[in-house]
Amino acid sequence: MSSVLQPAATDPHPPTAGKYRPVSSHLAIAPPVSVVIPAMNEAENLPYVFKTLPDWIHEVVLVDGNSTDDTVEVARELWPEVKVVEQRGKGKGDALITGFQACTGDIIVMIDADGSADGGEILSYVSALVSGADFAKGSRFANGGGTDDMTFIRKLGNWALCTAVNRKFGARYTDLCYGYNAFWRHCLDKIDLDCTGFEVETLMNIRVVKAGLKVQEIPSHEYLRIHGVSNLRAVRDGLRVLRVILQERSNRRALRRRSPQSPMVDAMRGEVL
C-alpha cells in the first residue's frame, strides 16, 4: 500500500513521481486525487460544493445527467479545468461508474452535488488512504460525524440494513447508505461495480469487504440539501438496497460452493477495520 512519500503502486511510472502536493501543514502527497461529482440540475448547489473543494486536488470530474439547467456552464465557470462527462444511462450508480472511468488520479473521491457534503473533509479521507487504507468510507454515525438530513424512518432503515450487512458479511460499519467515500483506483478492479441505482453505495461497501480490502471509516457531517428536492425515496430505495444485500449473499454462497476456502481465508476476508 502506498505511503505518504510514494505514489500508488499500481503505476510504476506515475506522471507525478517526485512531485508532492502540500495538503496541510503536516501532510504532503504524491498520488493525484480525482473528485467525481454526479449532477443533474444542480446549478444552484454547485457554488456551495465547489467552494469547499481543496485547491490541491488533481481534477474534478462532473458527470452530467442530461441537465436542463445551467449545471455544466456553472461548473466550468467555477472550476475552469473541470472535466465534464455526459451520462448516457440513468441512475446514480451509472453516473458514478461513468465518472470513475474518466478519472486519471490514483485516488478517487465521490461526493454529492447537492451541497450536503463538506469538501474540506477530503483531507481526512486522503490521509486515511495514504496511511494504509484501501477504502475510506464516510460515516454519519461514527464518533464525530452527524446528519441534518435524515428522518427517524430513514435512520431506522439505515441501521437495519447496516446491521444486516455487518452480520452477513463480517463488516463493522456504523453507516451504510452514504455517498461520501474515497478509495485507491485499483480497488475498482476488485469490486467490479455493475448496478445503476442508488444502491451502488451499498454494493461498494459489501464488495470491498468480500475482496478483503482494508476499510477505514471517516466521521462525516451531512448537511441539508441547499436547493431543490432529493430524488431519494426511502421505501423504494431501501428495497433496492435490501435486494443487493440478498443477491451478494447468494453470490458469496455460490462462490464458496465452487471454490471451497479454509476458515482462515474466510476470516481474513471479513476483517475490514
From TrEMBL:
> Where do the Glycosyltransferase 2-like domain residues begin and end?
34-156
The UniProt entry, under Pfam families, shows: Glycos_transf_2 (PF00535)
> What is the top-level taxon of the source organism?
Bacteria
Instruction: Report residue spans for region: Disordered.
Output: 1-20
The record, for Gene3D superfamilies, names: Spore Coat Polysaccharide Biosynthesis Protein SpsA, Chain A
**Family membership noted in the UniProt record:** Belongs to the glycosyltransferase 2 family.
Kindly give the PANTHER family that the UniProt entry links to this protein: RFBJ PROTEIN, UNDECAPRENYL-PHOSPHATE 4-DEOXY-4-FORMAMIDO-L-ARABINOSE TRANSFERASE-RELATED
What is the protein name stated in its UniProt record?
Glycosyltransferase family 2 protein
The scientific name of the source species is Streptomyces massasporeus
